[in-house]
Amino acid sequence: MQLVVLAIVILDVLSAIYLVNWGPFPLAAELGAPTAYLNIYVHVPAGVAMYVTASLAFASALVSIRRQSAVKVMDSSAYITAALAWYAFISGTIWAAESWGTPLALDPRQMSILTVAVVFSLYPAIRRGVEDPDRSVKLSQSYLIAGYVLVVISLLAPVLVEAFHPKPGATFGGTLRAYMGLRTVLVVALFTVLIFTRAPKPTLWLYLTAAVVVSAMLYPWLQNPVRVIDVTNNSIVLEDGRVLNIPPQSVLTPVEINGVATLPKHYILVSKDGVELVRHYSAYVNAALYFLTAAVVARRHE
Fold it and tell me: Rounded to 10 degrees, what is the CA torsion of 280, 281, 287, 288?
């Protein structure tokens, strides 16, 4: 079983690093840099995993009423849910700053995930705050069963009220959807398995190393990339007022989708070596945060 877990960890690390730096992204977006949507490869899978582990916490709380053996599963799934909920909220806030125009848009799912993070973070205090073991278990069971209502509300929020978040299932199609689905399967499998078994010893260091590697990919942002605001057939207009006399197709193809230019809103880096497209920093930051979150969970389950 340890070899299976280690294989999932390795695939998780390699796929996340590859996709945030080389994976496909939508060529155009209504607001913000299209490459900010590379966050779908780390933020979305972790969010789905959070709902799965929260559901396992709820289910094990019900089962543990009759079977004491389910208490350990209840504890582990609640702790992992807290970690994933905080990651989902923080990474979503970083992404929202670019794609929604503000980090805190008071989006119903964004705020409900914050509530879930707070509720599940209080679980350890409730679990350990009662000296009598039997009473501690019963109180924890009741707390998780009642708290699961917030998880359901968070999941349904984009359906119940107007939200920036898309409705469940209303995401990208094609290759993006396939890669996001693959990442979701890996991340859900990883955190579900860690509820029931220990993390292999190399797991912590693999995730810490991955966080360093993906952080190094932020290097182009130290060189002050600039946003493109307009293009012509033979020039690129930058946000700082400069006009580059180079064709946009030398930076990004296709040049247009349904008559709309694809390069505007993207960031590019202009150097003596030429002009290159720069992927939005939020994807790298959130990938690093994901690896650190996984490292924390792995450390607890070693």
Answer: 170
